[in-house]
């Protein structure tokens, strides 16, 4: 199993140091799209990361033309000498429509087609066929020779999709090389919901599970310096996530749906400051990796996800002094 360094809020002025940190103690470096452009951050990191993969976890698909995404991924695959992973996700309707003023619905078939469109563009870049994609949501059929970046000396980038429900896991198994899952998951959910859905998707293309990577992002409580303060910070983060209806199926699977409803009620009433008080340690620990040090957390994560995940990374980020 690979353990990756994950940056939820990547800073451009830190990326060289973060790349060196990933080189020293992790198997890869992944950057989220939260407050900045992950492709810019990874462009810097690609010049300092000498082993392992680097990728987006995730870049938002719908606000970007597939051509822009394909070009950015192509550039990073060249810069990293074939070690880039294009992680894509749909986000939620409010962000896509109101923050980015882009089309959202229907997210699952749109994202499926988006991946196929990007792969078609890469084929055109590689000289395998002309650019001539006509789908339900995307049409691209004009690529002047002077605008074609040309083939790579490396394989095309791998594509991972963000997934939570069975439909998106199945879509990832069908059109992608891997999937990311949000921290609101359990080992049981991965076994009983994610894996069967991935298998159904893989069956559509005649692939085996060995051809696919499941990358898990996990909440992590490391009390190396902060003690109970870190646990309470993660408890607040979990309460916020668990109040969202999209994550209710995970809670329901374990009989914890009432907690999700209570947290949702707190949100409706504007009682955000008291939400975390509803989350007991028993439930919090089921979703978290808990260890006294970051090195201990890596060990615990490897043990916890052995046999069910191929890659794992932590929602929180180790300090730069930690390798």
From TrEMBL:
Q: Name one GO molecular function term.
A: oxidoreductase activity, acting on paired donors, with incorporation or reduction of molecular oxygen
Domain of life of the source: Bacteria
Family annotation (CDD domains): Tetrahydromethanopterin_reductase (cd01097)
InterPro entries per record: F420-G6PD/mer, Lucif-like_OxRdtase_MSMEG_2256, Luciferase-like_dom, Luciferase-like_sf
Q: Name one Pfam family in it.
A: Bac_luciferase
Signal sequence, renumbered to the chain: none
SUPFAM superfamilies, alphabetized: Bacterial luciferase-like
The Luciferase-like domain, residue ranges:
10-307
- Entries under PANTHER family matching the protein: CONSERVED HYPOTHETICAL ALANINE AND PROLINE-RICH PROTEIN, PTHR43244
**What name does the UniProt record give this protein?**
Putative F420-dependent oxidoreductase
Biological source species: Amycolatopsis endophytica
């Amino acid at each position: 199993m690979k353990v990756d360094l994950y940056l939820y809020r990547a800073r451009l002025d830190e990326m060289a140091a973060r790349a060196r940190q990933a080189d020293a103690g992790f198997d890869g470096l992944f950057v989220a799209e939260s407050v900045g452009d992950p492709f810019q951050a990874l462009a810097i990191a690609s010049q300092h990361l000498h082993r392992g993969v680097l990728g987006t976890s995730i870049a938002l698909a719908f606000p970007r033309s597939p051509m822009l995404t394909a070009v950015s991924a192509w550039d990073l695959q060249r810069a990293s000498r074939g070690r880039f992973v294009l992680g894509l996700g749909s986000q939620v309707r409010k962000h896509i429509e109101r923050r980015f003023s882009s089309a959202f619905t229907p997210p699952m078939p749109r994202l499926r087609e988006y991946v196929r469109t990007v792969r078609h563009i890469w084929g055109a870049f590689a000289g395998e066929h002309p650019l001539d994609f006509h789908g339900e949501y995307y049409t691209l059929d004009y690529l002047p020779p002077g605008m074609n970046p040309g083939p790579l000396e490396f394989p095309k980038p791998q594509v991972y999709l963000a997934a939570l429900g069975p439909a998106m896991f199945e879509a990832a198994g069908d059109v992608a090389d891997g999937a990311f899952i949000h921290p609101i998951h359990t080992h049981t959910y991965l076994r009983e919901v994610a894996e069967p859905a991935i298998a159904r998707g893989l069956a559509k293309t005649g692939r085996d599970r060995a051809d696919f990577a499941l990358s898990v992002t996990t909440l992590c409580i490391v009390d190396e310096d902060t003690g109970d303060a870190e646990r309470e910070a993660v408890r607040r983060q979990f309460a916020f996530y668990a109040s969202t209806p999209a994550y209710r199926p995970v809670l329901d699977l374990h009989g914890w749906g009432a907690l999700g409803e209570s947290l949702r009620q707190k949100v409706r009433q504007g009682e955000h400051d008291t939400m975390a008080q509803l989350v007991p340690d028993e439930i919090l620990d089921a979703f978290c990796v808990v260890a006294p040090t970051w090195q201990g957390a890596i060990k615990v994560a490897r043990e916890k996800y052995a046999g069910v995940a191929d890659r794992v990374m932590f929602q929180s980020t180790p300090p730069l002094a930690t390798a």
